């Protein structure tokens, strides 16, 4: 579990994840003006739009650097693949000690940075040490505070020692930041990358070639890349903040690709798809849209009330109506394509108004004659639902719930707030109901259950009336340290099932990414890692 020292940093990261998961998260400070001249050299280029500048391309810091762009330049020791499989990347193999504390990485010997210098254990240690110099900044990532020692065993062998066993270490090494690797010439003289880097030197398939702040960035193919060379020679990122402007640019042929979460409206995506003139793709679930019910509130402290609210709205109809089928009705609180989530034993709740009314009656919330709001001990069944005012899907879903629950005799007051306010109120336990979505791959399920168990993030307080709360917290602490795969699977099955059965976390829909591209673009695939770039294997015929 996260300790109190790291809560504020983890919260800051949570806010950034929430803000940037509406699209994908992702160079130098120099402005380059010769864009048209360079691009004219090659027609083998993909142009796509992003809502904001790609940022400074520092692998060890966060905003404003955009995750997709960082992942084009910088690479991990381990990569996260479909189904949660962790595969060797810059490390060709690794071993873990029986006590789960020591990790020995055998590094690839055929890897060069984009400036021609060697990738080896010395530079791996230098990157780790730069990150640990600012450990408080990175404490949201569970294994960082547990690092006891980094060692160079030989030129291509690196050892990481933890203070205690922490099974998600390998999974967390696959995230886009901060543990990716900057070349020697990119380090500032004092080695403190938190203040900036000299230049973005990585081992990845792309090199930042041209950049004009808030206008565009052009990445060229790293011709000396150690892995499979990309088919496309250049990727141009146009900064287009407005979603409607992005759609118009795509229709004019100025963009080859639109990609991400929330980068254009669902209506625009469906309209473009309906023309039959473009290629389209929809990803597997990347996260679950959820409702969190605060069991600290009197009206929601009774399990029967929470269950009644779940039974009392037509989830399938709402998801289809609000997202035009782009999202899928969620039966479980985490997508089942994540590790340890495919066998969760939890009741799938189907729409059943009669069942909902029966449960409310049993809980003592009766509908007085001549009134349309249920009461108990003279108090009305009145609940507030908080949503992000910038999120049209949350707003429309809130309005739908308000209408459906009114038919049950439940008064739902909906209030739109800014995202920062939404997060702060959730953290402070100042809410009745709130929208939330989990972090996705490669963070979950361990990050999700971690914040559920940690004070100050909203979940632990929200589940305070669970009769098995203490048992849950013990299981969550245990699952992080277990070295037995079978036991870990069993623990997650119990944790996730119990969280759902107690009804404080209601799954609504599975969030998906979209991609729409011109017909001359082929071989588009979604990365398994929610934050990675989507350009692996993509081709274009101009």
What does this structure look like?
By secondary structure, the protein is an alpha+beta fold. The protein has 2 domains: 4-260 and 516-540, Periplasmic binding protein-like II (D-Maltodextrin-Binding Protein, domain 2, 3-Layer(aba) Sandwich); 287-511, Roll (Dipeptide-binding Protein, domain 3), CATH 3.10.105. The chain has helices at residues 7-20, 35-39, 67-73, 121-132, 169-172, 243-251, 266-274, 303-311, 315-323, 353-362, 392-406, 419-427, 446-453, 459-462, 469-481, 485-501; strands at 45-50, 78-80, 86-88, 91-96, 102-107, 147-154, 157-162, 206-212, 216-221, 234-239, 257-260, 279-282, 287-293, 328-329, 375-376, 379-380, 382-388, 411-417, 433-437, 505-511, 514-517, 521-522, 539-540. A 6-stranded mixed sheet has the order 14-20-13-19-17-18. Strands 1-10-9-8 form a 4-stranded mixed sheet, with no helix packed on it. Strands 4-5-7-6 form a 4-stranded antiparallel sheet, with helices on one face. A hairpin with a 5-residue loop joins strand 4 (91-96) and strand 5. The protein starts with 6 loop residues before the first helix and ends with a strand.
* N-to-C span: 51 Å
- Record the strand order, biggest sheet: 14-20-13-19-17-18
Helix content: 25-40%
Shape: globular
**If you consult CATH, what is the topology of the largest domain?**
D-Maltodextrin-Binding Protein, domain 2
Poorly predicted runs? 4-41
How large is the count of helical segments?
16
* CATH superfamily grouping of the largest domain: Periplasmic binding protein-like II
In percent terms, what proportion of residues is strand?
A: 15-25%
**Could you tell me the mean pLDDT?**
91
Q: Give the total of domains.
A: 2
């Amino acid at each position: 579990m996260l300790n109190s020292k790291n809560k504020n940093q983890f919260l800051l990261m949570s806010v950034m994840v929430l803000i940037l998961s509406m699209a994908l998260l992702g160079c130098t400070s120099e402005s380059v003006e010769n864009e048209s001249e360079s691009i004219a050299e090659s027609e083998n280029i993909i142009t796509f739009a992003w809502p904001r500048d790609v940022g400074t391309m520092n692998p060890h810091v966060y905003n404003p650097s955009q995750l997709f762009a960082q992942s084009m330049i910088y690479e991990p020791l381990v990569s996260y693949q479909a189904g949660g499989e962790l595969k060797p990347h810059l490390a060709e193999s690794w071993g873990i000690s029986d006590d789960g504390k020591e990790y020995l990485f055998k590094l690839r010997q055929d890897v060069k940075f984009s400036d021609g210098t060697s990738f080896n254990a010395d530079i791996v240690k230098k990157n780790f040490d730069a990150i640990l110099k600012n450990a408080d900044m990175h404490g949201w990532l569970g294994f960082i505070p547990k690092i006891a020692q980094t060692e160079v065993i030989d030129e291509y062998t690196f050892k990481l020692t933890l203070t205690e066993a922490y099974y998600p270490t390998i999974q967390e090494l696959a995230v886009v930041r901060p543990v990716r690797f900057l070349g020697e010439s990119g380090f500032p003289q004092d080695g403190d990358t938190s203040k900036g880097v000299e230049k973005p030197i990585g081992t990845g398939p792309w090199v930042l070639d041209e950049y004009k702040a808030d206008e565009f960035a052009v990445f060229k193919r790293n011709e000396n890349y150690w892995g499979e060379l990309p088919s496309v020679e250049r990727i141009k990122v146009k900064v287009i903040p407005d979603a409607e402007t992005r759609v118009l640019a795509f229709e004019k042929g100025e963009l080859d690709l639109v990609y991400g979460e929330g980068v254009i409206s669902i209506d625009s995506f469906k309209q473009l798809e309906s023309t039959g003139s473009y290629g389209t793709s929809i990803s597997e679930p990347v996260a679950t849209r959820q409702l969190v019910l605060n069991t600290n509130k009197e009206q929601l402290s009774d399990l029967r009330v929470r269950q009644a609210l779940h039974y009392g709205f037509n989830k399938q109809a709402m998801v289809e109506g609000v997202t035009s089928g782009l999202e899928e009705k969620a039966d479980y609180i985490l997508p089942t394509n994540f590790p340890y989530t495919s066998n969760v034993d939890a009741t799938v709740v189907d729409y059943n108004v009669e069942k909902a009314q029966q449960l409310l009656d049993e809980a003592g919330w009766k509908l007085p004659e001549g009134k349309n709001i249920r009461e108990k001990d003279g108090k009305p069944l009145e609940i507030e639902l908080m949503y992000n005012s910038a999120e049209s899907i949350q707003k429309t879903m809130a309005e739908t719930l308000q209408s459906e629950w009114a038919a049950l005799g439940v008064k739902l007051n909906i209030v739109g707030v800014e995202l920062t306010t939404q997060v702060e109120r959730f953290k402070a336990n100042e809410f009745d109901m709130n929208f939330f979505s989990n972090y996705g791959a490669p963070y979950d399920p361990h990050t999700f259950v971690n914040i559920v168990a940690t004070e100050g993030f909203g979940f632990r307080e929200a589940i305070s009336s669970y009769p098995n709360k203490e048992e849950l917290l013990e299981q969550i602490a245990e699952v992080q340290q277990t070295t037995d795969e079978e036991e870990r699977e069993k623990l997650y099955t119990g944790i996730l099932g119990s969280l759902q059965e107690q009804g404080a976390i209601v799954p609504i829909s599975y969030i998906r990414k979209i991609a729409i591209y011109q017909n001359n673009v082929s071989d588009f695939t979604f990365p398994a890692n929610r934050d990675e770039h989507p350009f692996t294997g993509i081709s274009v015929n101009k």
